[in-house]
Specification:
The chain is 46% helix and 14% strand. The protein has helices at residues 38-53, 90-113, 129-135, 163-170, 173-182, 188-193, 204-219, 223-238, 241-255, 258-270; strands at residues 14-19, 22-27, 59-63, 118-122, 125-127, 139-143, 147-149, 185-187, 199-201. Helix 1 packs across helix 2 (90-113), helix 3 crosses helix 4 (163-170) and helix 8 (223-238) runs antiparallel to helix 9. 36% of the residues are buried.
Length: 286
């Protein structure tokens, strides 16, 4: 990404718009069931990091087009990766392949690490790599016809781009194991029952509308407080309760904003919506 911003660059796999402080990223290859080709893996982190680093929005919504959210990995991504020049080079090839997988993992980790919340609106199939994709989002909604499949077991491999570390924090481990070992479909209502998605909607239009409405509601809150909440929730997920409590105390020591709290009280008294400053763009270089 150079001079173009996320909302003006010409992307192969995505349409991007920003309105009401909400960035809407849409997968736009329905004819290919929005499979994740090589361009996908370069474009998604470029888009998200531009929005994040330049504070272009206060919340991000990710949706898709066509019958399915995404059929997952386009296997051309793995073409020629890790090929050695013979048996003596297999360890060298393995090291290279490990680095390749790390790069793929980073594509979705940017969602988890973004300063603003990310909401996924899912329709139809959410398959293979798409489970890795959506599990890295903060909130998930889906349509009644949606289903989730850890497809990797059905093609003789282990899911490796983020499904297991994240799903084990989102749903009971027994469900992760059943889905991982069998490759079965997890239907929408069951996904809601076990907590993978927050709500199920009848139509694609309804799920996207709800995701955008929730994003606008989040965008009306203090961006600093929202960013702090995401940092603290992620930290609590990855650490002990004691460590989480100490980190929250440390964060509040440096980030608590009396003026932002005062603004909420004044706005309520005056019968208006509170006005908060955006996050600052991140500094680059020295």
């Amino acid at each position: 990404m150079t001079a173009h911003s996320a909302e003006t660059a010409a992307w192969t796999c995505f349409d991007v718009s920003i309105e009401d402080a909400v960035a809407h990223i849409q997968l736009k290859r329905p004819e290919a069931m929005n499979t994740m080709n090589k361009a996908f893996w370069a474009e998604l982190p470029a888009i998200v990091r531009d929005i994040n680093d330049n504070a272009r929005a206060r919340c991000i919504v990710i949706s898709s087009t066509g019958k399915h959210f995404s059929a997952g990995m386009d296997l051309s991504v793995f073409a020629n990766v890790g090929e050695g020049r013979g048996e003596t080079d297999r360890h060298v090839a393995g090291e290279s392949f490990r680095r390749h997988v790390h790069a793929l993992q980073d594509t979705f980790s940017c969602l988890d690490e973004a300063r603003m919340p990310v909401i996924a609106a899912i329709q139809g199939g959410c398959i293979g790599g798409a489970v890795d994709f959506t599990s890295a989002c903060d909130i998930r909604y889906c349509t009644a016809d949606a289903f989730f499949t850890i497809m990797e077991i059905n093609i003789g491999m282990t899911a490796d781009v983020g499904t297991f570390p994240r799903l084990c924090k989102l749903i009971p481990e027994g469900w992760v194991r059943e889905l991982a070992y069998t490759g079965r479909r997890l239907p929408a209502q069951r996904a809601r029952d076990i907590g993978l998605v927050n709500e199920v909607f009848d139509t694609h239009e309804a799920v996207v509308a709800h995701a955008l409405a929730t994003a606008r509601e989040i965008a009306s809150k203090s961006p600093l407080a929202v960013a702090g909440s995401k940092v603290m929730i992620n930290y609590a997920r990855d650490h002990t309760i004691k460590d989480g409590l100490d980190y929250i105390a440390l964060w509040q020591t440096g980030m608590f904003s009396g003026p932002h709290m005062a603004e909420t009280f004044v706005a309520k008294q005056e019968g208006r919506e509170p006005a908060f400053p955006d996050l600052m763009p991140l500094r680059k270089g020295l």
